[in-house]
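Intended use. Records like the one below are meant for learning the mapping from a protein sequence to its folded structure. Do not use them to infer anything beyond what is encoded.
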Amino acid sequence: MPFDPRTAERDKAAMMAHMPDEIKDLAWEDLEVAPGSNARNKMVRDFEAAMDAKLSPCYPGKGGDDDENGPFMGGRASPMYADFIVGGWLQFMRGCLPEPEWDAMRNKWSGGKWGRLFDALNEWTAVDGREGVAPQRR
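Structure written out for the chain above:
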């Protein structure tokens, strides 16, 4: 996740201060899992498998607009609180993941289910007439 350059060092130090003792002495860069590395690829595959096994079954809909095939939890046509939690995670992923990883998660994982949910939640991203609470992709 990119840091604001004006506060990056302070933010990293604050996060490291809350790390377990056994890793507090590491440099921030030592914690990075570089895109394209074997470790990163395994982490992404494991995350996809976990999403498929644990979360995907909660979203059985195929993207329709009725209460059996809707994009929301349980196949509903309208969202409930849990959908907004998952939607928040998706907004976070959109902002943090490199474009190819976000594109795969959005459009390929679980048959494109996460992209359908992301799109279906779009109307709730406006706050007080302002567009989205999440920053646009950098």
